[in-house]
């Protein structure tokens, strides 16, 4: 069985709907929680068959409120890229992946939005990425993928919503497995919260079925390209 190491940056944000897809494919995963009193980042030698970097609520990477483990996580992600281990970055994790790959990030206020992403590469995720899919973003700052990154989908403003680094690394600005309860917990976990989150909460709740349906296709393509079910 394959094993994914998942770095969690807040108590509230986890894999969400993605957990069921991994469990259904018998892909094991474990959470590392460096924000806790006794938590640490995993040593590169202890990363399993891939690395997932989750979102961080109000934590960012562009200087206003950087996640405390930023430098170490960039090093960790860069090591995985060098070893050609799969890396999946979500929200803050996509920013870290971008920085590890030689790109950057730009400052933006913490926000919570619910919209749609549009596929711009017809063969994205082995052809499984939906042409339009829900984009639930809870994030401070934005990733600036390196020039050689392949942009697979864009948001309504034409910014990257999903990008690919090499063969097996992917950055999602939104959380493809978002649950309404996850966003509610993020809002309560931190003193700093997005302005007027109620409309986005309602939109995430209303998009529950669309999120679930899109994730079926997204996970099919991701698992194929990251080879997480190959012996």
Structural account:
- The protein has 231 residues and is α/β, with parallel strands linked by helices.
- The chain has a single domain (3-226), classed as 3-Layer(aba) Sandwich (Rossmann fold).
- It has six helices and eleven strands.
- The protein is globular.
Q: What features would you highlight for this structure?
A:
single chain, 231 residues, alpha/beta, Rossmann fold, nine-stranded mixed β-sheet, two-stranded antiparallel ribbon, 11 strands, 29% helix, globular
Q: What fraction of the residues are assigned to beta strands by DSSP? A: 15-25%
Spatial separation of the terminal alpha carbons: 8 Å
Strand arrangement, major sheet: 2-1-3-4-11-10-9-6-7
From the spread of the alpha carbons, the general shape counts as globular
CATH topology: Rossmann fold
Instruction: Give the total of beta strands.
Output: 11
Describe the protein's topology.
Blueprint: E1 3-7, H1 18-24, E2 28-32, E3 50-53, H2 70-82, E4 87-90, H3 92-100, E5 104-106, E6 111-119, E7 132-139, E8 142-144, E9 150-154, E10 160-165, E11 169-172, H4 180-189, H5 198-206, H6 208-226
Parallel strand pairs: 1-2, 1-3, 3-4, 4-11
Antiparallel strand pairs: 5-8, 6-7, 6-9, 9-10, 10-11
What would you say about this model in short?
With 231 residues, this protein is an alpha/beta fold. Helices cover 29% and strands 24% of the residues.
């Amino acid at each position: 069985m394959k094993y994914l190491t998942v770095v969690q940056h807040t108590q509230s944000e986890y894999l969400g709907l993605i957990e069921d897809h991994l469990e259904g494919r018998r892909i094991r995963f474990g959470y590392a929680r460096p924000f806790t009193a006794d938590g640490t980042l995993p040593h590169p030698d202890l990363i399993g068959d891939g690395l997932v970097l989750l979102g961080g609520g109000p934590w960012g990477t562009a200087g206003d409120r950087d996640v405390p483990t930023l430098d170490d996580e960039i090093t960790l992600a860069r090591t995985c890229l060098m070893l050609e281990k799969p890396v999946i970055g979500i929200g803050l994790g996509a920013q870290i992946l971008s920085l590890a790959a030689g790109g950057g990030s730009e400052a933006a206020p913490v926000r919570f939005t619910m919209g749609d992403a549009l596929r711009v590469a017809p063969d994205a995720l082995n052809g499984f990425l939906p042409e339009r899919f829900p984009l639930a973003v809870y994030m401070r700052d934005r990733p600036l993928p390196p020039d050689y990154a392949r942009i697979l989908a864009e948001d309504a403003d034409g910014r990257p919503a999903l990008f690919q680094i090499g063969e097996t690394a992917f950055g999602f600005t939104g959380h493809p497995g978002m649950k309404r309860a996850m966003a509610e917990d993020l809002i309560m976990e931190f003193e700093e919260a997005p302005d007027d989150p109620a409309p986005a909460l309602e939109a995430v709740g209303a998009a529950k079925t669309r999120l679930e349906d899109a994730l079926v296709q997204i996970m099919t393509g991701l698992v194929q390209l990251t080879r997480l079910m190959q012996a």
